[in-house]
Design goal:
9-stranded parallel β-sheet, 25 strands, 260 residues, 14-stranded parallel β-sheet
């Protein structure tokens, strides 16, 4: 199919901004990166719009490194908004006086809005958050080992993963290591179910895992928090874990979250 922008060489610049839209008459990816290095001495922004069954942003291996923000905004229709796999590396070293978003992955699709199939997000920023956000569709993982990694330095901000109503299907593997005191927030809205990832929290901030987070507690409605053996939540400091689920009968085995 037709590709809006196919990155076939390494790219480096003060600020890197790419916007690609595939040809609407064929299956095409908005932006495609196969094993190339993108490096920005400032901010980095990639916006991709797919056509038909193409993907908004597709990256296999390669790297995206920024001294500022990294924004990926991918839109698909019947396929992924964002698909990252093959140990794609994303690194931010930005520094801010107040809380800012250092890494933002935003996918929109009626299918899997964001699909993580081997991505290594290293947030080495100062006061920068990581937000992985799925709109319309689900947020999913498709690897059976822990090759999906989100790691925060002690200076970084909060880790956030969210959907606006779709399921958050981390029913294979994703490992989050939080070394700062800003905590971790994993949430869905409405009826979206949520599979808890593996979380190691070395800071003092809380870990919140909330399905149907916009709904009133105790109503028995909303999505359910599901669990997977091996996806434990471990507090290595004084942080507290909070689990919010639609109803007891639909909630997964909470003992899977206990690392002891």
């Amino acid at each position: 199919g037709d590709v809006g922008i196919w990155i076939k060489r390494d790219v480096s610049g003060r600020d890197v901004s790419l916007s690609g839209t595939a040809n609407g008459s064929v299956n095409g990816d908005g932006i495609k990166n196969a094993a190339r290095a993108l490096t920005s001495r400032g901010d980095m922004s990639l916006t991709g719009v797919a056509s038909l069954s193409g993907m908004g942003i597709y990256a296999y291996a390669g790297s995206m490194t920024s001294a500022g923000r990294i924004e990926l905004d991918g839109t698909g229709t019947s396929n992924h908004g964002i698909n990252l796999h093959g140990n794609a590396l994303i690194t931010s070293t930005g520094s801010w006086a107040q809380t800012e978003t250092a890494v933002h992955l935003k996918g929109t699709s009626n299918n899997a809005a964001v699909s993580l199939n081997g991505v290594n997000i290293q947030n080495n920023s100062t006061k920068g958050t990581t937000h992985v956000e799925a709109l319309n569709g689900r947020l999913e993982t498709q690897v059976t080992d822990f090759s999906n990694v989100i790691a925060h330095a002690s200076t970084a901000g909060q880790v956030v993963m969210s959907t606006d109503g779709g399921h958050l299907n981390l029913n294979t593997r994703l490992g989050i290591t939080q070394n700062s005191n800003e905590g971790v927030l994993i949430k869905t809205l409405g009826n979206g179910n949520l599979t808890a990832p593996k979380i190691d929290n070395h800071g003092t901030g809380g870990v919140v895992v909330a399905a149907g987070s916009n709904l009133t507690a105790g109503t028995g409605t909303g999505g359910q928090v599901l669990t997977l053996s091996g996806n434990s939540i471990t507090q290595h400091n004084t942080g507290t874990t909070y689990i919010y689920s639609g109803q007891t009968s639909g909630t997964g085995q909470l003992n899977h979250l206990n690392s002891n």
